[in-house]
Amino acid sequence: MRYLLRLGPSFTNLNVRWCHQSVYNSNGTIRKVAVDLGHKKLEISTGRFARFADGAAVVQLGDTSVMVTAVSKTKPSPSQFMPLVVDYRQKAAAAGRIPTNHLRRELGTTDNEILTSRLIDRAIRPLFPAGYFYDTQVLCNLLAVDGVNDPDVLAINGASAALAMSDIPWNGPIGAVRVGLVEGEFLINPTRKEMGSSSLNLILAGAPSSQVVMIEASAENVLQQDFCHAVKVGVKHTQQIIHAIQQLCREKKVTKRTPVKMFSAPGDMVEHARQLSADRIYSVFKDSSHDKISRDDAINKVRLETEEALKVKYPQAELFEVMECFNTVSKDIFRNLVLHEYKRCDGRDLTALRNISCEVDVLKPLHGSALFQRGQTQVLCGVTFDSLESTVKADLITTALSGIKDKNFMLHYEFPPYATNEIGKMGGINRRELGHGALAEKSLRPVIPKDFPFTIRVTAEVLESNGSSSMASACGGSLALMDAGVPISSAVAGVAIGLISKPSPEKPNEIQDYRLLTDILGIEDYLGDMDFKMAGTIKGITALQADVKIPGLPLKLVMEAIQQATVAKKEILAIMNKSIGKPRNTRKENGPVIENVRVPVSRRSRFVGPGGYNLRRLQAQTGVTISQVDEETFSVFAPTPGAMNEAQDFITDVCKDDQEQQLEFGAVYTASIIEIRDIGVMVKLYPNMSAVLLHNSQLDHKRIKHPSALGLEVGQQIQVKYFGRDPTDGRMRLSRKVLQSPAASLVKKLSEKQSISMATGEGQAPGTPS
Which of 124, 149, 190 is nearest to 59 (CA)? Predict the structure, then answer.
């Protein structure tokens, strides 16, 4: 395939230029730099807004602007990890809209906001120095959104610029771009319209020296070589953003603060802990007969004894230092076992998969179900079909900002506490569950048929977890979809690749030696340097997510990880195909049914009922969903065939009106009045027919305000003429007025008027005796 890269009109090669300027005003210096990326300029500025923050930057692409601020406390936090909080919030005003809730304010956080916040967090967190435990907050404020350029990539670059130009200790900057692939042409930061026809949505954050910090991608079965080339193109362009931010830092003469304390274990305490526990820890990690629970119990036993001994020898030591000493020793032993002995704690080779078992049709009443087991990671997936009315409908602000519209496929990931032998709260959804579910959903979405007549919901419940539950959810979801008879284009499998690396003594940000691990355990993720998750079909890649814990990965290592994941993916697909090789030809007997019901215009008012009463009653009693297709056609969705039968009987009964077939246009019938209303009378032509309104205007030639003016009563029989059905609303047309002679009515009216005049003496000729 020939690869093309769209560039601006003034470019003849891939070299991307940048320029900068400084503007002085009464409030200080406004510094701005422009980076040419493809056919647009990315502008980064600082010094104008939010000057009280430790760092603030505004990033603009087209007419989309994002302001990012960074603030970090100067006093350490009592936590035992880096307390970083990233909040990305969508502002309605930025898109020229007003929130539609009752307060007309932004309330809560949307899924898109949470996922974007996680994206920014994963890009910047690896570059904070080890032991920097100071509360740090990064806030992303959308200033303006043009509906053409997405603000998520701008927010990553804004966070990088704000942190780099602050005095917060941070080993940045980084640069981020989005890469699209349209008809063999790679686009850098494509517009929303271009992304609509792109087979690749790759967001990549790069560090200096062409290293990769974070990857988030969804793809429509993109080939491995195309994906690798997209990564290389993206990294090349991130370097230009990095150079521009570095230039701003040099102009501002940024000096990083010296923290009061960096949390790390004292060297002498670490050595003493090593003497006390190294052999015992090594023997636990070397024993492949352990499972997750027994290994954790054995390590915790050694931990408690070692920490007690350390407290006795170092009574003045803080609790964190005591705990960190043991953590440092156990981490070193675990990593050295992989680096030097090429052994993993469960006895596998570095590229070997865990034992995999698959089962479909686990729960027969469900539309589709599957159980996927990989080692001690177990996921139960179920498929549910519903009507297209049940699609996920994005709020107006999300649609205006990101163009996300209704979607008829969703995957919901659940991680209950018992999956890791813990106790915790149930209910609600946390950011981790949302992120893992979004990744599994991206993995499966490309194989879902576009014209599928139902809304599909896949639930992935993690029953056991020992690493890579999100990729197990993608595998289980693929099996459940095939079991449900969804004609997916190909089976999907996913796997996680881990990394154990050794930094260079001369250059700590460079890797001297490393080992890649296929299908990582939970402990390999926790003590390792990378969680590289990739999913796809036998043909190509559908999703990829790389979480890195070190300052960056060289491109060579990323390419190796993709290749190793591709090999593992094919092995997993071969095992899955033994359980079910292709989608079932038909859906299950208890599956949902969709039928179109034709309701003539003449019956539509009776079918719908007054104010939609009949439709609501039908849906409440049978559980079906009804939507109008055109003037005479209604689509009926039923969750089961039994519900469809009930709905059909209901519809037949509601629309049944046999006597009407005997009515002749223009014929005169005797109707019985059954109800008197202000606007007319309700009459029946036959006892088993529905009542019809005979309006006041059709009762008599003269205007009346109420039927009582004519002496009409309930039970009275009157003569009416039938004029068929109204072609617009289907109502029966009857008239009593046409049966009464207008001349007779006029004579009667004049006679009445003359009688009244004579009784009052009016109208008498002059001179006539009374």
Answer: 149
What whole-number distance in Å separates Cα of residue 462 and Cα of residue 419? 6
Instruction: Indicate the helix (H) or strand (E) that contains 585.
Output: none
Same domain flag for 515 and 448:
yes
Contact 467, 525 (CB under 8 A): yes
The 3-class SS string of 604-642 reads: HHHHHCHHHHHHHHHHHHHCCEEEECCCCEEEEEECCHH
Percent of the chain topping pLDDT 70: 88
Using the 3D structure, point to which of 638, 656, 674 is the last residue of a domain: 656
429 and 533 housed in the same domain: yes
Structure-token match 């993720």, residue found: 525
Flag whether 146 is in a domain: yes
Is 708 contained in some domain?
A: yes
The CATH number of the domain where 651 resides is what?
3.30.1370.10
In this structure, the strands spanning 185-188 and 4-5 are: parallel
Count of residues for the chain? 770
Same domain? 475 vs 520: yes
> What single string gives the DSSP state of each residue in 258-285?
--S------HHHHHHHHHHHHHHHHHHH
Spatial separation of the C-alpha atoms in residues 243 and 250, rounded to whole Å: 11
Q: Are residues 216 and 326 in the same domain?
A: no
Band of the pLDDT at 464, cuts 50, 70, 90?
very high
Q: How many domains is the chain built from?
A: 5
**∠ CA 241-245-246, rounded to 5°:** 115
Alpha carbon 670 to chain centroid, angstroms: 63
- Specify if 763 maps to a domain: no
Q: How far is CA 728 from CA 225, 600, 635, 724, 725, in A?
A: 60, 11, 20, 12, 9
Structural domain range at position 597: 593-656
Which are the contacts of 695, defined by CB distance < 8 A and separation ≥ 6? 679, 680
Contact 176, 205 (CB under 8 A): yes
In tens, the pLDDT along 249-274 reads: 999 999 999 998 888 889 999 999 99
Residues 430 and 469 in one domain: yes
Going through 441-556 in order, the beta strands assigned E by DSSP cover 455-464, 493-503, 511-518, 530-536, 541-548, 553-554
Contacts of 502 (CB under 8 A, 6+ apart): 339, 511, 512, 513, 514
The 10 Å CB-count burial string (b at 16+, else e) for 517-527 is: bbbbbbbbbeb
According to the model, what pLDDT value does residue 318 have? 87
pLDDT digits (tens, 9 = 90+) for 596-627: 887 776 677 777 777 778 888 888 888 888 88
Residues 46, 142 within the same domain: yes
Pair (542, 640) in one structural domain: no
Shared-domain flag, residues 228 and 281: no
CA atoms 47, 53, 55, 59: torsion sign: negative
Please report, for the domain that includes residue 384, its CATH number: 3.30.230.70
**pTM for the full model?**
0.82
Instruction: State how far the Cα of 530 lies from the Cα of 553, in Å rounded to an integer.
Output: 9
Per-residue pLDDT band at 762 (split at 50, 70, 90):
very low
Separation CA 516–CA 497 (nearest Å): 7
Q: What is the CB neighbour count within 10 angstroms for residue 580?
A: 20
* Residue 76 falls inside a structural domain: yes
- Residue 471's pLDDT is what? 96
